[in-house]
Design brief:
The protein has about 325 residues and is of the alpha+beta class. It has 7 helices and 11 strands.
Length: about 325
């Protein structure tokens, strides 16, 4: 009887302690009471009603979860049916796609409520939503576009579309990242696609080299054009300077002649003979032959044959 008197308080104390819950720093809790959500305690010690009255669900809101969606090469190797994750392109070809979704549970009270109410449907709904979104993207493009641009373009497409569509399902999760882990044609035609891809890569490489060569030739032509423009500009400037100098010199000579002509009427003849002298000196300095013609004048006029020296034999 004495033992029973001590056991009852101890059992009652242990029962009351079931109302204590430790919520970790990376968690939020949802408290159910008689089938209804009554509280959303944060990290720390939560003191509630004991078991049977309160039920506490701790939710790791800061844990990033991963979900793989689509084609699985390992399972397809052992299967004979149409694989999951095989999609039809816009030009009636098949491609196998596998994506990885990173998501986390929302931290707001409404998101916590939505998650604990629909947590059994989260992965199934995400899986089907991703497959529908990928199918939509692949069906609008050719197989070449899918294989060449899918790794870069498809994740952002899926991320944008799911961000718009998931709130309607009230799953209480937030997408963090979408990535492509596998994107390839079916194994039966993969070799042919790889050959085509290699040929296309070779074509693009040659096109890139051709563009580089064209750009280099354009730069060389621009350099030559610039050099010729500079030389032409310098030649033009030098000719203009020389012309202005010659014009200034002529104007100075003309002014000097007019002054001399007023005092000496024979000034023009003097200038004439001075120019003749300069011309004869120039001819002589260049190895020219200068002889007077008076000795070759006869009754029939000027005999030029006497000026020609017969060649030596």
């Amino acid at each position: 009887m004495l033992r029973l008197r001590y056991l009852i308080p101890i059992a009652l104390m242990a029962y009351l302690l079931t109302g204590l819950t430790q919520v970790r720093p990376e968690e939020r809790a949802v408290v159910w009471r008689f089938g209804q959500i009554v509280a959303h305690p944060g990290p720390g010690l939560w003191i509630g009603l004991p078991w049977g009255i309160d039920r506490v669900e701790r939710v790791p809101v800061r844990t990033v979860r991963q979900l793989t969606v689509g084609y699985d090469p390992a399972s397809w190797a052992e299967s004979t049916s149409t694989p999951v994750g095989q999609f039809l392109t816009g030009d009636q070809n098949l491609v196998n796609v596998q994506l990885v979704l990173d998501y986390a549970i929302g931290e707001s009270d409404q998101e916590l409520d939505d998650y604990v109410l629909h947590q059994n449907l989260v992965e199934t709904t995400l899986n089907r939503s991703v497959e529908a979104t990928v199918s939509e993207w692949v069906a609008g493009r050719s197989v070449d576009q899918v294989l060449l641009t899918g790794n870069a373009a498809l994740p952002s497409w899926v991320m944008d579309r799911l961000s718009e569509r998931l709130p309607a399902f009230r799953l209480g999760v937030r997408l963090q990242r979408v990535s492509i882990s596998y994107l390839a044609p079916p194994e039966e035609v993969r070799a042919a696609f790889e050959a085509v891809t290699q040929a296309q890569t070779a074509v693009r490489t040659r096109e890139f080299q051709a563009r580089q060569d064209a750009a280099q030739r354009e730069r060389q032509a621009d350099a030559i054009r610039y050099k010729l423009d500079q030389e032409a500009s310098e030649y033009r400037d030098s000719q203009l300077r020389q012309a202005w100098a010659d014009a200034a010199e002529f104007a100075a000579q003309l002014a000097a002649f007019r002054e001399v002509a007023q005092a000496n009427p024979d000034a023009l003849a003097l200038l004439w003979w001075d120019e003749i002298r300069k011309a004869l000196q120039g001819l002589k300095s260049r190895g020219g032959r200068i002889e007077p013609l008076d000795a070759n004048l006869g009754t029939a006029g000027l005999d030029l044959t006497q000026l020609i020296t017969p060649p030596k034999r």
